[in-house]
Amino acid sequence: MTLDGEPPLTLEPRNPPPPPRRRIGGKALLAGVALAGALGIGLGLAARPQLITDLAARTPMAPVAKPAAQPERQMDIVMAELPPAAPPPPAPPLETLPPDMVEAPPPGVAPLPVEPAPAPIPRPAPAAPRAPQAASAPQAPIAPDPTWGERPSFDCRNAASLAEEMVCTDAVLAAADRHMARAYRRAERSGAPIEALREDQDDWLAYREEAALRSPRAVAAAYDRRIGELEAIAAGRARLGGR
Q1: H helix and E strand count, the chain
Q2: Could you tell me which of 185, 180, 160, 156 has the C-alpha nearest to residue 170?
Q3: CB 227, CB 176: distance < 8 Å
Q4: pLDDT in tens, 106-153
Q5: Contacts of 176 (CB under 8 A, 6+ apart)
Q6: CB 204 within 8 A of CB 154
Q7: How many Å apart are CA 78 and CA 224, to the nearest integer?
Q8: What pTM was estimated for this model as a whole?
């Protein structure tokens, strides 16, 4: 479209076509990739020594010291003493009416009977004092057990052998010794030879000492045997002989 005297109007398209692309050859592309790889390897080798030096230069981090725990504060609790409670106020005294103000019963009405006062409870009479008990007669002191048993035929103060001490401390043996002494006197009065009777008695005393070394029962058996021998001599049924 043209107007008179003006050049013709040219309209440009809204979306111009893109410029033509340059084609890169395969060899140029491979050369670029190889150049980029070589450049990366060189930069890595150059930065490695510096990285090792930086890691060695770093010092280990010192542990952070924890703040010391402060001791717990103890609070002294003081209990305040409560003031003593005030005593309650005294009760007002009871008012009593005088006798003339007491209401009298109306006429014609019998007054109420007055209850008699309760009889006092009888109290038991006090018990009569006990008569003092008569003082009992003092008891005779108990005699201590004698050191020696019942007295044998000899004086225990002159005991000079084990058998004699055993006889003095044993009532059964002391009684057997007295019985033996009586049988010995009867044998003397029976007319037995005195010297032979004494020798036989000495032999028996030695036998009694041997029995005392065994037991009191052995001594009692020796006495029983000797009493039987002396009674047989006194009755004339036996002659003097050894044990």
Answers
A1: 5, 0
A2: 156
A3: yes
A4: 666 666 666 666 666 666 667 766 766 655 555 544 434 444 447 899
A5: 167, 220, 223, 224, 227
A6: no
A7: 97
A8: 0.39
